[in-house]
Amino acid sequence: MMKTIDDVAVEGRCVLVRADLNVPLDGDRIADDGRIRASLPTLAALVSRGARVIVCSHLGRPGGRPDLKYSLAPVAAHLGGLLGREVDFPGDIVGPEAHAAIAAMPPGGLVMLENLRFDAAETSKDDMARGYFADQLAAPVDLYVADGFGAMHRKHASVYDVPLRCVSAVGYLVQAEVAALRRLTAQVQRPPYVVVLGGAKVADKFDAFGSLLATADRILVGGAMAFPFLAARGLKTGTSLLEAGQVDAAARYLGQAAPGQIELPSDLVVATRIAADAPRQIVAADAIPADQMGLDIGPESAARFAATIGTAGTVFWNGPEGVFELASYAAGTRAVAQAMADGSAFTMVGGGDTGAAIRALGFADDAFGHVSTGGGASLEFIQGKTLPGLAALEV
Ligand code: 3PG
Ligand code: MG
Description:
Helices cover 37% and strands 16% of the residues. It has 395 residues and is an alpha/beta fold. Strand 14, helix 12 and strand 15 form a beta-alpha-beta unit. Bound molecules: 3-phosphoglyceric acid and magnesium ion.
């Protein structure tokens, strides 16, 4: 069993918490603070027990150099507001300003480092580069706490290499995520098992398909995920988001699937561009105009997906069905969320964007069995893959 923060003494000790505070931003406004709230129990407990807490995270994909668009400064301010205390934000990661802030921190203090991905070493494929960065992150640290579940599938310095160098424990978020996700590994207890996949980060999720075909009774495919499959069926997808290499893989998966195992949208909401004021129309999946892109599943598909979800014993959902941030393209995502909330299945919603979507559409987290803060991470976990962030804690 992994050690938790309740198993270790923390008073007066320097504790580095790797959180996932990668929240959606709208300018410098936090569009959904779910991941910050999910990190509160661990941070509040450590602070109240008199630890000297350093919290670190990535935000977005700034590409290995400082880019103020991706600064964690607004996140530090927001966290301070939620905790009702000041969060010291020195504005660097392992430089002299962070050093000084950490050295000056009293017991019960809290320092947030700047975006870890401002340093290319964080995500480097070179073990030495990551190791050197991890040495610097670990230098002042007495205890490492893994609580950034959403990033634990990444073999990154702060996720994988730092815990190899420190006494480590898991935080409350990771503990809760792992306990919930264990219900979806190996044999799901309540068939039929329905998986709903959507979202825009298609490449990340595509690899999961093969193993999901072996475990899921039905896979409902929406969002940008649907386009390689529609293209593989020989349909024209207009200007929809589509990566060429994925069409062959989609064709292979369609060939492997049992009849009816993969359900694709039969109609779509299309427009010429992603904008609230662009004229939109509903078209059959085989009639997407050449100059238009699919931005949501259509009403017929939404009703069919909802009906399938209604028959499920267990549902896992990762990735919105469309561009839910705009009301004109939110209906498909809303229909899936409603069907999950109404049904009697054990339901799991996974992912930063998917969690943000249900909250933006007015659903409470407790309308679902579990709302995971990690999309990619939960998808890898339910495939039975070892997450690098968990593997590093078990050595
Ligand atoms: C996420 O949002 O999925 C996690 O924070 C991981 O981010 P990444 O996909 O950029 O590694
Ligand atoms: Mg995500």
